Amino acid sequence: MKKVMIKKVLMTLAVIFVIIISLVGYGIYRFFNPFGELVNEEVSDSYFYSRDKEHIIYSPMGNWFSLGKHEMDVDLSTFKVLGRDYAKDQQYAYFKSRAINFQIDVPSFNVKEGYVPLDKNHVYVLVDDLYYLDDSREGFKILEDADPNTYVQLNYNFAKDKNFVFRNNEKIKEVNHESFEVINDEFCKDNNGVYFYWYQKPLRIIKEVNLSEVVALTNSCIRDDKYIYIHIGRRNYEEVDEVINIPFKDVETIKFFEDHAFIKVDDKIYYEGVILEAADAFSFEEIGYGYAKDVKYVFFNGKVIPGADSKTFKYNDIKYTFSDKNNTYKAGEVVKK
């Protein structure tokens, strides 16, 4: 009993010590903090007023201690934040802390979606993120043939104006401009079909999809009226590259777990796109870090752990261990005592 009390007292003192150290550290940080309030916290976390509010300071995410700070020579009365790393005054437009020396129209200069610079004449592409640190660097180029008045950034990969569809700042011709839409982060469509897209890889048409019924299930998965479509990048610890379809009867039964390698569809559990034959879909639950279990078995990365006791298997979030009544497990294997 006495040992327990001593342990509790020591733990309490340790917590108090950590709190005091944190408060002292924060106080020191605030004391040496070289700037005041954000100019426009809804638009950017990097442009600050100086303490006397007579200057503008650029500091990435306010992390001046690690990432530095740059006092800017601006016209304070007309200074306006346009995006996280963009601003302007009556004379110049700025990328981070540097005045942009590209031939832009400052009065009409603006930023869409927080990162797409444009003016009345052109849409611009940032080609060097370190441009603001070195006067010899060229930071921007014109996005050829893009119409700034109708240009819309659909997501990070695709954009569209009245004439063209752009992918990663290049015009593409393999899709129909008028009907093109982005479905989610991995699939898009036009009136000819649904396409899978991945970084720096050609669009891949998925011919069997019912185009009139296709909808997003997650940011990386779609379905039509009969099938779920998902890209598989790894299987059995090896890289693969395929878009598979999984049939379903009842859309309400589709469930994605935190580890998207597991999917519940109707009365089946899939792992990496393959049916997990041993799993009972109705009692199946994800534990985390590759582990799952049902009423009968414990699984690690889609494979049954021999001898593991499903009823008592659990994760200890204090010791960061997985165990049942008999053993502790690491990477699906029994840890030798």
From TrEMBL:
Q: Which InterPro entries match?
A: DKNYY
Q: Which UniProt keywords apply?
A: Membrane, Transmembrane, Transmembrane helix
| Pfam families documented for this protein | DKNYY (PF13644)
Regions crossing the membrane: 9-29
Q: What is this protein called?
A: DKNYY family protein
State the species of origin.
Answer: Aquimarina algiphila
